[in-house]
DNA sequence: TTGTATGCGTTATCAT
DNA sequence: ATGATAACGCATACAA
């Protein structure tokens, strides 16, 4: 069923049908009703592809996520879909499984007029990313990383880690371990580690190589890195840069016959939904991932509508969530 | 940049450029190279919308999910994306936020030739769903619910619950409570409840209204329903139809000064990623959600390729995960 | 082996 | 107020 068929059935021209469908232009009430009747009867729905070609607008935004099966990604997506729905937009999603090359491919593919704008939630920003991004003919918003020349939605990694360290120090901790991730991820790998070092320094605590371990984003990695730290020295507290790492670390501590927080306190970052249902409930930083998705989408639409083309760096709020995985220790350690 | 421009720059006709891009038809090596060179130099990418209109194929599949921010949904999506990627397909995702009306809308919208096929992960199948589904001009695969006339990917809810009850009975439990969800969700609300009743019956245990409570899918609901059961009678074990309900129930039990599993054993269904990191680790049923996504996508592609148009009901595997949240009790209760 | 011309389904311009 | 028609960018039948 195409517009022509409807026109024939209703005894009008295709142009009139189009006018009825889009509620613009003049059309006599009588004809309008005739057309509407036919449309209802045959259940006609316009071909969105043809509309997009003609309108040069697909009403679709592309979203590139590193791993869709993570809680972070799905919360961000929820925020994006919410704003998109208000604007009558659909989401085309590319799951890149943490493969850089896939990210580049997705970026290129989506740029072919298929989408009106792109949101990328990146773990790493390479020169290649930049090169491809600069070629884009549609607006791009980045979540989670800084990308020169594009608006970015950022998490306050520096402040959040400082708050966490402050909290630990106030609880009397002086030997604070750290479990991080690869520095290729600039925001999570570098910024959070640097913040940890700065915070130690700020409290006049020494930075000790033996208390630091670098893993990936898995729970298992948290376990392994904790094990490697315990082999060298025993901290009284550990700051893990994600909740999953913290959860793995806690498991490892327990398996070593130690207790959290009695022997070792642990903190994470992110506040996964189950963080407060763990035993002990995990002290962490709540990030408003859904909000970041909403912000990214709003900014993107501003650019699509050419309302505001300047590139911003927007920091999304966070909140320290103090729970039982951190314990005060005696003042004479 | 369109195909015409490339043609001009390379000194050939648009048709030749098209042939080069799609690697079909004959074209002299020399011209091919010239065209490829221009394409590389200007970074030409074809307009996917125009291709779709011409080819009557968008290489996009639509996916409708009830709530994208759930672990279940994201694991299913991961499976779908994986298969889709192999076929060079993109995903257009509609997040319906558990709103029936949204589901219908999405179904209608996606059917407009925009996508080559649709996968819907439904919580409820109404007559309206059926009516719209029957009008579709593209294939449809359903995940998680039975839908007459369409192929469905189903979870073995009946068997899984039986296994769970068997496990509890073998551990000596006779007063087994139940926390379920609204029967509108046929598979989770009805089938799982019926299986619970059948299993009790099979073990010659009485069904007691006071031990049963119905909530929604949230952790909080698990908490509330557990509280309502405890007010009436105290079971020795509780079967919750999702892990989240189980987690809420455990929290409630703890808050009432009781212990899991010493006082009350608890089981869930689904095996969320953190289930084994809870205290106590949660006994549950592992569902292969990612696999179900893969199966759904494979079946959909079979239908898109018209390889196999028969409607199947495919059950995806499950596995009982016995952990510490269930405790053997003395034989003289 | 290559080019020309037509059509995919819609919207919008221009007459009428 | 309405209808005829060109154009969106691409692929392909047909001609050459």
Automatic annotation (TrEMBL), chains A, B:
Keyword Ligase: no
SUPFAM superfamilies recorded: lambda repressor-like DNA-binding domains, Periplasmic binding protein-like I
Key words, A-Z: DNA-binding, Transcription, Transcription regulation
Record keyword Transcription present: yes
Entries under CDD domains matching the protein: HTH_LacI (cd01392), PBP1_TreR-like (cd01542)
Lineage top rank: taxon: Bacteria
HTH lacI-type domain residues: 1-55
Protein name in UniProt: Transcriptional regulator, LacI family
Natural source organism: Amphibacillus marinus
Source taxonomy: Bacteria, Bacillati, Bacillota, Bacilli, Bacillales
């Amino acid at each position: 069923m195409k517009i022509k068929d409807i026109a024939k059935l209703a005894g009008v021209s295709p142009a009139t049908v189009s006018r009825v469908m889009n509620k613009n232009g003049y059309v006599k009430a009588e004809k309008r009703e005739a057309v509407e009747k036919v449309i209802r009867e045959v259940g006609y729905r316009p071909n969105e592809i043809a509309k997009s070609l003609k309108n040069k607008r697909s009403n679709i935004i592309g979203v590139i996520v590193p791993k869709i099966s993570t809680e972070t990604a799905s919360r961000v997506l929820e925020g994006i879909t919410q704003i998109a729905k208000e604007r009558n937009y659909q989401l085309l999603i590319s799951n890149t499984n943490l493969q850089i090359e896939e990210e580049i491919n997705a970026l290129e593919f989506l740029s072919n007029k298929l989408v009106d704008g792109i949101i990328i939630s990146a773990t790493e920003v390479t020169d290649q990313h930049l090169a491809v991004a600069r070629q884009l003919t549609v607006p791009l918003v980045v979540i989670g990383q800084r990308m020169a020349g594009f608006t970015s939605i950022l998490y306050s990694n520096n402040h959040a880690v400082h708050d966490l360290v402050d909290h630990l120090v106030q609880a009397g901790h002086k030997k604070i371990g750290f479990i991080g991730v690869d520095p290729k991820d600039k925001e999570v790998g570098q910024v959070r580690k640097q913040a940890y070092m700065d915070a130690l320094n700020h409290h006049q605590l020494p930075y000790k190589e033996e208390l630091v371990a670098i893993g990936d984003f898995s729970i298992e990695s948290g376990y392994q890195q904790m094990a490697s730290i315990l082999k060298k020295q025993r901290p009284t507290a550990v700051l893990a840069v994600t909740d999953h790492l913290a959860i793995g670390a806690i498991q490892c501590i327990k398996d070593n016959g130690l207790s959290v927080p009695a022997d070792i306190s642990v903190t994470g970052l992110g506040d996964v939904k189950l963080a407060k249902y763990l035993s002990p409930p995990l002290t962490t930083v709540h990030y408003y991932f859904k909000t970041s998705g909403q912000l990214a989408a709003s900014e993107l639409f501003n650019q699509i509508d050419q309302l505001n083309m300047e590139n911003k760096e927007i920091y999304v709020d966070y909140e320290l969530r103090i729970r039982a995985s951190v314990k005060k220790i005696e003042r004479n350690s």
